[in-house]
Amino acid sequence: MSVFALHSAGQQTTPPSNADPSAQTQAQTPAQGQPSTSAQPAPQDTSKKGGQDPSGQGKVAGTSNDRLFFALPNFLTVQNAGKIVPLTSKQKFAVVALGSFDYVQYPWYAFLSGMSQGDNSEPGFGQGAAGYGKRFGSAIADGTIENFMTGAVLPSLLHQDPRFFPSGQGGFAHRTGYAVSRIFVTRTDSGHSQFNYSEIVGSALSAAISTYSYHPRSKFVSTPTNPHMFIPSDRTLTNTASVWGTQVGYDTITIVVKEFWPDIHRKLSRKHKSDVAGTGTNP
User: Fold this and answer.
1) C-alpha distances in angstroms, 209 versus 51, 145, 184, 206, 231?
2) pLDDT score for 268
């Protein structure tokens, strides 16, 4: 039973055992035209909703409404692994879609595209507004494909759970090791541990799909110093492996941040409350 249910039950008035039954009936019946002040139903046990607090329950049941650093979607990180129910395939696709097309993602992709343009990575995209537009579109597609492959498509086919369940126990090294291990070990829909095919194979498939479909082919370009400069194709096995490694590395860093985010969140919240309290104190 939740704390709120206990508090509600404690406020209910229990009639004496020797009270007149008619008096009990009258006491329990609200006056005409007046709202009832009798005992209200206890709030629903949040453990039935994946252990999530109602304010933190995500739009998709069994997920969260959390955001890393109050910005980046963190909807697939949840607590109370032992009490949570598995996600259906429909729910897996729904929550991945919410995160992939979240408004915060687009400034992030814009930043990554600017970094890519500054380094002139994948020179086949070119420079200027046109080159930046191609990099921006490519970044969105890369991220979206990878999210769906690792969080919805493979987990649905293989019956694996795409959610991350923080350990929250032990020292820094133990928790970091646990988080890193979740790249290779995941939970099945039935609650067992299994090799994380969704992450490893899913990220490899997404890297292959993106690299061989819309990334630059080899071509000749004209420059002031070289009218026939050859730019090699990015559609190679080497580049695919590089993209795969980058995605897995990025996901590893992200999952470590997710492990410690609850601690960071609590400290930031306490600091904010302390600052608010200090502001409201008269000198």
Assistant:
1) 37, 8, 22, 5, 21
2) 84
pTM summary value? 0.73
- Cα 64 to Cα 84: distance, rounded to the nearest angstrom: 12
Q: Which two tokens stand for residue 264?
A: 């960071």
Interatomic CA distance for residues 126 and 117, integer angstroms: 9
pLDDT digits (tens, 9 = 90+) for 93-136: 999 999 999 999 999 999 999 999 999 888 899 899 999 999 99
pLDDT digits (tens, 9 = 90+) for 50-96: 333 434 578 898 999 999 999 999 999 998 777 789 999 999 999 99
Task: Tell me the pLDDT of the chain averaged across its residues.
Answer: 81
